[in-house]
Amino acid sequence: MDPKLEERARELRTLLQKASIAYYVHDAPILEDSVYDRLYRELQELERAYPELVTPDSPTQRVGEKPAEHFPTVFHRIPLYSLENAFNPEELEEWQERLLRVLGRAPVPDSRTEGELEYVCELKIDGAALALTYIEGLLERGATRGDGQAGEDITPNVRAIRSIPLRLATADPPPVLEVRGEVYLALAEFERINQERRSAGDPPFANPRNCAAGTLRQLDSRVVAARKLSFFAYALHWPEGWPAGDPPQTQWQCLQQLKELGFPVNPLSQVCRGLGEVIQFYERWRGAQLPYASDGVVVKLNSLRLQEEAGFTQKFPRWAIALKYPAQEVPTRIRAIVASVGRTGAVTPVAELEPVPLAGTLVSRASLHNADRLRELDVHIGDTAIVRKAGEIIPEVVGILKELRPADAVPYSLPSQCPECHTPLVRPPGEAVTRCPNPECPAKLRGQLQHWASRDALDIEGLGEKRAAQLVESLGVRTVADLYRLTPEQLQGLEGMGSRSSQKLVQAIQRSRQQPWERVLYGLGIPHVGVVTAQILAGHFPTPELLAQASAETIAQIYGIGAEVAEAVVAWFAEPAHRRLLQELQALGIPALPQQENPAVSQILAGKKFVITGTLPTLSRQQAKAWIESRGGKVTASVSRQTDYVVVGSDPGSKLEQAQQLGIPLLTEAELLALDPTVESGDLHP
User: Where is the BRCT domain?
Assistant: First the structure.
């Protein structure tokens, strides 16, 4: 190989990469399009003639020649959380009050003008979330958000997005770097694509978000390249010890770091001091003409240390919220009203509508919430209703145009009997919801089976809405325990179930016997007990018996569990039917428990804050974190004056030096375990 050809290929790659960063990141092109295209073709011809010159980060390698057959599922090392929504400044202020309580700070006298907290405001782009992983500076993987825990590996399509760098713009890349951001479609490009689809006789896309999300899942990356998706980065996760010197301490510094690495960052982002400046930012951009679709403002606590202290709920980071623009409202006619029964027996009136486009989707159903709301609105079948869709919530009826009410409009009120099982409905004292009290109501049974089989519970593949209905209606399944008595022969009698599919479903059901207690607890569907709450409760009460015997006062004292949850748990276990169900499940070996049951773990570390640095002798970092948190402690990512202990292993990072400077006590792994005198030698279980 001629060294001059190698050098020329390297020069072309470097120049084209710099040109892409200048164009997409800094909005300051250094090459005319025609010049870029000519240089690109020169590199392409060189690589075609000499394939050994091709490198993974070459601009020519963005688009593959062969369509993918499928997208494999990948698990996110760091979950992608959703954002809590606020729909007006008042809800934003309520969020800040909750945040201040979590951080242990005094309320702000005038939260709009004298806020002591500093925030970063970023426009909320209406697109699709993307998780990028770089290994030694090269793009290794791009994945969709999915359910936040697992998504689809769409790396070939990610490589086709010109604004996403294939190589980080740094001479000192970390071993692993994760970047999060939003893929979106510029409005002009969206219009061009839809015009092409109309000309071809294809239906147009409803909105840019749907088009962007659908494009990401195209099996042919050439289609992705042709649609010219764009990307804004907004978060990164880096390993300890990188970058050299001072790592980012704030969200704003993270955004600047992303730009330095070659990622496009929305230039309209801004640091705001207090909610007053946040609301000014929101008002400035609400209704503004932008080159992309935006449905609100994302407000993030600027300090990464305070973000760490605030932590997460089951679904959201406590330190961030989306302040959404006012919801879109449209009028349409109510064709009928039906009463829908959920798994807890809650009866919700639902309006069936003349289909109407709303917020990019075709809406044909909308919630009327409850009996009080029905009376307040004075809803009639045949009325013209005002329907609103705010964010990702289901559409709701917010008003009735009574002046348009036809003469034959029919008043509606909730039935007195359950529409599914005809049991008289009840309204518990103090509740707005009307419920069906029948434990054998088919609608409740269907919902309970679906919840039990859901991914975060027992994770039974193949047991969805349709199959749950068949099991209840055709096979007489009445409790989740009945699932474990089903045979392939019984299932083969159901519509759509053959020999193979019946065998697979029975195997999936039987495999779920091995799921741990925390998943079973979540699957029981106890009110207010979500995934995270179930994990906390299972950590403190390692068997169903221990939890069933606990008082509301005992449960409420656990860090992260409040009185409302505690009372709901005690009330659930007090029901004879629920106790019988647990006995049935335990007779079936559910949940799978260790041979020797652990006693309830003490809370000896309650209120203490720990930082872990280096590699511990026997515990992984995750195991050490779980051990500390199960005893009431909290593990944070950075050392501060509020840190009580730093646990030090081999090859510690800069946190050790920081702890020594601040005079914070240092612990070995053995000294950490010795903090709990109830732990016997060799017992390292959380």
Answer: 600-686
